[in-house]
Amino acid sequence: MRELFKKRLALHQRHMQKYLRYVFNDHFVLICVFLLGGVGLYYSEFVKALPRNFWPAAGVALLILVAILPLGRFATLMQEADIVFLLPKERALKEYFKGAFNYSLLLPFFIELLVLGFLMPLLVATTAITFPAFFILLGTMWLLKLAQLKIATLKIYQVAPSKLRQVELLWLVLAVLCLAAGIFLNPFIGLILAFVTGVGIFKLLAKSEENLDWEKMIGMEKSRLHRIYQFINLFTDVPEITATVKRRAYLDGVLQKIKPQQKNTYLYLYARRFARGSEYSGLFIRLVVIGSLLLYFVQDVYFSLGLGILFIYMIGFQLIPLYNQFRYMILTQLYPVSSQQKAKALQVLLLLLLSLAAFVFAISASLALSLWYERFLVIAAYFLMVFFFTRWYVPRRLKKMA
Q1: Is residue 236 part of a domain?
Q2: Which three-class secondary structure state does DSSP give residue 212?
Q3: Based on the domain organization, do 215 and 255 belong to the same domain?
Q4: Are 60 and 273 in contact (CB under 8 A)?
Q5: Per-residue pLDDT tens for 51-83?
Q6: Distances in whole angstroms, Cα of residue 21 to Cα of each of 27, 107, 220, 275
Q7: Where are the transmembrane segments (predicted)?
Q8: Closest to 366 (Cα-Cα) out of 287, 308, 283
Q9: Whole domain around residue 328: which residue ranges?
Q10: φ and ψ at 157, to 5 degrees?
Q11: Is residue 143 part of a domain?
Q12: Which residues contact 328 (CB under 8 A, 6 or more apart)?
């Protein structure tokens, strides 16, 4: 059974690698480097300004560490056909799930490593712990994650939901106590408590893993993969994901402003695809909200300038795949419409959407900046970026796509 999991894992990783080269492209890496550099600069200045023994900051760090512990689901890699073909081997699947358990720990461990490394300067500045305590706190978090993932594996078995909720609540209380003891008392105390918690959880659940709930298990794996594909779909088309369409009657007044003329054929299609499809409109709203919130708390004109331009570029870049939404529809091939109209229609739609985003960003940045010339500078830069992106970058990008 372990060999079966290894084969499935190898196939899954090869499948994901095909998409990851689109996710971690040059643009995304550049954006991440820029954001990390800017956040790191402000974070270092913020930590230096904090007083010693400032417990509210340590309390926020504690909440963040507790919040990231549940990240990462139990990846079984099970398929629908397994209900038929692996049902006779249900008892032997324990070896299969051991491999799945170990694989499911990799990403959460890496996330905890990064987040704790990011928060350590804050903890050192506001508590009595030192930087070498990083490894002890990391061990504490890993032990707590082991216990949490063990509880997550219980969901694939026929266990009463009430019992599952009780165990999850018990783990949460113990996790808060362990991390609080490690941060505010002594890191070794937190490590010892986490070890006791992990051993206790494993022994408590040792006899609960009896009968598999096959349909629930496969549904959980489908849900897990769907979340991954949703993220990848922000960067490229994913055949495994099906788009959901919503009526959104409240947008009819806006959409009806597009006159029913032949020159507006693709503008009509793209606008309705954006408004009524969940992935593009949701992406636009999320990035606008996140960008405006970040700009509201940035008081440096140059960082506000770069951050706003960066988010405008991100929004526009993620919306460009709208161009291919109707490529495989036979009816659109029969339309007596020139191919140039597609590119022009997308440019017009992006100009409207990015102008709206620039307007929202300009308001947020203006509220944060105090000088009028700084406000004028960021507003002008945002709208210049919209003009540059739609008039220069988009046509060249579409030529490559075509």
Answers
A1: no
A2: strand
A3: no
A4: no
A5: 877 888 889 999 999 999 999 889 888 888 888
A6: 12, 18, 26, 29
A7: 20-42, 54-75, 96-116, 122-144, 164-182, 188-206, 280-298, 304-324, 345-369, 375-394
A8: 308
A9: 249-401
A10: -105, 165
A11: yes
A12: none
DSSP state of 75: -
What letter does residue 221 receive in the DSSP assignment?
H
pLDDT per position as a tens digit, 279-330: 777 778 888 888 888 888 877 788 888 888 888 988 888 888 877 777 666 6
DSSP 279-315: HHHHHHHHHHHHHHHHHHT---HHHHHHHHHHHHHHH
Q: Are 176 and 210 in contact (CB under 8 A)?
A: no
Global pTM?
Answer: 0.71
Spatial contact of 235 and 96, defined as CB atoms under 8 Å apart? no
DSSP secondary structure letters along 313-358: HHHHHHHGGGGGTTTT-HHHHHSS--THHHHHHHHHHHHHHHHHHH
> Among residues 68, 75, 145, which one has the least CA distance to residue 114?
68
For tokens 């490590």, what's the residue?
A: 191
Looking at the structure, tell me whether residues 181 and 109 fall in a common domain.
Answer: yes
Look-up of token digits 């090869």: 14
CA–CA distance, 18 with 20 (Å, rounded to integer) = 6
Region for 77 from its dihedrals, namely left if φ exceeds 0, alpha if ψ lies in -120 to 50, beta otherwise? left
Q: Let me know if residue 106 belongs to a domain.
A: yes
Cα Rg, the chain, nearest whole Å: 25
Q: Which two tokens stand for residue 118?
A: 């990011």
Is residue 339 domain-resident? yes
Strand partners, 157: 212
Q: What are phi and psi of 130, to 5 degrees?
A: -115, 175
Within 10 angstroms of residue 357's Cβ, the number of other Cβ atoms is 24
